[in-house]
Amino acid sequence: MSGEVHGLPEFYASPPGQVAIRLIRMRLSALWPDCTGLDVLGLGWAAPYMGIWAGQRGRRISLVPACFTPVHGTALTDDHDLPLPDRSLDRILLIHGLEASEHVRPLLRECWRVLRDDGRLLVVAPNRLGPWALFDHTPFGQGRPYSRGQLSRLLESRMFHVLRREEALFVPPFPWRFALRGARLWESVGRVAARRLAGVSLVEAEKDMFAALPAGAVSLGRRVVQPVPARYAVEPPASDDSSSARA
Predict the structure, then answer these.
(1) How many domains does the chain have?
(2) Band of the pLDDT at 214, cuts 50, 70, 90?
(3) 86 vs 101, which has greater pLDDT?
(4) At what angle do helices 148-157 and 104-114 cross, to 10 degrees?
């Protein structure tokens, strides 16, 4: 990953960051309310959000890009070479990862590799059309933002099937007290009247096993006709003339 996203710990310790955590967690909880018995990976800067499933049975793993400062309970990794075996996870939450990655396609390929056949990926990325993407004093204004359509097409091109799309973070990206105090109202109004102006897009996608085999990859080839071995040969029925002669 590149070093394009800065100030994550400082942002999440600030009042706007705390509001962002609360609003995004609301959407994550709605999409994945119960991960009991599932193995979940938080990839990127997912530590503020992994607590949603902390009390549920199953493994919880947090991997942080090597360019970020690790926090307690996380491990550093390269985004294009995850230190996990094939088909070892049920869920991946990717946040503060895609927009800053210099290896977007290898990153998504790695996510596909480590997910089980019915595994799901939940991507949270800055919305290109939202005001949060216009100001770089927050992490959501750094890196490469995506429109919802761009994000969906990217996932589908990397062998994922998009299941659901959501939006969050309609509150203005400024430390205004009146705005932060009314964050839930901003969220409610925005989800009804201005979904395209959300701060982040959330896209849930499922590992597409059928996409792993491109159309036309299997060739039927030419049919080869071989002679039947003598021991399996079937004698033709006797003709009427030969039958008459024997009679």
Answers:
(1) 1
(2) low
(3) 86
(4) 60
Determine how many CB atoms are found less than 10 A away from the CB of residue 159.
Answer: 19
Q: What percent of the chain has pLDDT over 70?
A: 81
Instruction: Look up the CATH number of the domain holding residue 126.
Output: 3.40.50.150
State the residue range of the domain holding 212: 8-220
pTM: 0.82
Count CB neighbours of 206 within 10 A. Answer: 17
Q: Give 49-118 as a 3 state SS string.
A: HHHHHCCCCCCEEEEEECCCCCCCCCEEEECCECCCCCCCEEEEEEECCHHHCCCHHHHHHHHHHHEEEE
pLDDT in tens, 147-161: 999 999 999 999 999
Kind of pairing between the strands at 89-95 and 40-44: parallel
Q: Has residue 227 been placed in a domain? A: no
Give the residue, 63 or 1, on which the prediction is more confident.
Answer: 63
